[in-house]
Amino acid sequence: MDFGKIAGMESESRQEGNRKFPCTGGNGRRPGKRPGSLLVCRLWVQALWTALSNGYAAGFLKGRIYMGATKSACAPGLNCYSCPGALFACPIGALQAVISSRQFTFSCYIFGFLMVFGSLFGRLACGWLCPFGLVQELLYKLPLMKKKRRLPGERYLRRAKYGILAVFVLILPAVVVNVAGIGSPWFCKYICPSGTLMGGIPLLLANPGLRAAAGILFSWKAFVLIAVVVLSVRLPRPFCRYVCPLGAAYGLFNPVSMFRFRVDADKCISCGQCRRACPMDIKVFENPNSMECIRCGACIEACPTKAIGASFIMAGACKKKNGAAVRGS
Length: 329
Prior knowledge:
Blueprint: H1 3-19, H2 38-53, H3 57-62, H4 91-100, H5 108-121, H6 124-128, H7 131-140, H8 154-157, H9 160-175, H10 186-190, H11 193-206, H12 208-213, H13 216-234, H14 238-242, H15 245-251, E1 259-264, H16 273-277, H17 298-302, E2 308-312, E3 320-321, E4 324-327
Antiparallel strand pairs: 1-2, 1-4, 3-4
Helix pairs in contact: 4-9, 7-13, 9-15, 11-13
């Protein structure tokens, strides 16, 4: 076997991978920059879903929350219940409402919804069906500030969302209660910037009485929102990385969900293009089903050797495909 020839071919392949990407039409542009690409398709899906799931226009005009029949169902993404146009409930808000009630009983619907969606798709809702995820992506596209890929202490910051899920969503609403035995939705009340943007601000703008009553708590929530907005201009999806409890819940299912990413080890050249394209800064070539992955597909478009794919497959299925090693199957 001529190892020198093989090494030369691999070097040429790496250079080719650095010069251009598939799906660029040979013009050298990065993936997602041309009409019809997966990125553009995903942005359209996000925008359409945001418009449809918040389609009660009268709510914005009158400053009233929609209370129709569909409000008893949950949307898969982080979509504030108090948004005047929201047609569905938020899973995190609904979960806190059940836990904080005086007669708390295990909610088969809420937990079942999260488990079924997570088992099927993992964090796919974060990348395709989350209105606040769309807001962050559009902010990052603004030609303002020097862009960063990660923050100091990134590894530890990413763990914060699991603590927020445990403490602010599950424990505090159940443990800290008033004299009537009713708790508060701690995450929605003190942290959630999506609720401030999509619920608090539209309601205040439409209701003079609410504006007069807004106090320190709303000022704090506005500060949190501003911090997330500023950070989103500089860093891809900071709220999704460090704070979002819904993403944390879905992420627990990523390693075992039926919808999975896979990397063909024989095609992968470890060039790192997938990580550079990934908004979550994941080493896809090492762990394609990381709990951080939002299933956006940017890595699939960026891969110069088409080594990355996605499909529905049972976790723990055969690690070989046509004799080739496959990571993530």
